[in-house]
Specification:
Rossmann fold, two-component regulatory system, alpha/beta, globular, Response regulatory domain-containing protein, Sig_transdc_resp-reg_receiver, phosphoprotein, five-stranded parallel β-sheet
């Protein structure tokens, strides 16, 4: 059985690597990029079961990225992460199509549970 592919988008390379290690151990295939422009290129090249994106990144931010993903890949769930969570950001992310909004520091068990829910596992 082919592993389900997850795209991680975050400008914090160490955070990307941490998520990659955890999610690879959970049986997922991971690709990671450090900004929204790279993410849009990856999404043109390949299909992903799920996307995890940071909210605050240089260039294309997470909210704008969610909108772009939702327009081209409406069935791909997106989980947004942020170190700066507030109600307005949460509402904006959900209104633009985010499946889940999780604040950092992440509890990995909560993230994995959200991934399972998003993928119907």
């Amino acid at each position: 059985m082919e592993k389900r592919k997850i795209l991680i988008i975050d400008d914090d390379f160490e955070f990307c690597c941490l998520l990659e290690d955890v999610l690879t151990n959970c049986g997922y295939s991971i690709e990671k990029v450090l900004n929204g422009i790279e993410a849009l290129k990856k999404l043109e090249e390949s299909n992903f079961a799920l996307v995890i994106t940071d909210k605050n990144m240089p260039g294309i931010g997470g909210i704008e990225l969610i909108s772009a993903i939702f327009k081209k890949h409406p069935s791909t769930p997106v989980i947004m992460t942020t170190a700066f969570g507030d109600f307005i950001s949460l509402t904006s992310a959900m209104n633009h199509g985010a499946f889940e909004y999780i604040t950092k520091p992440l509890k990995m068990s909560a993230l994995i549970e959200s991934i399972h829910k998003a993928l119907g596992e």
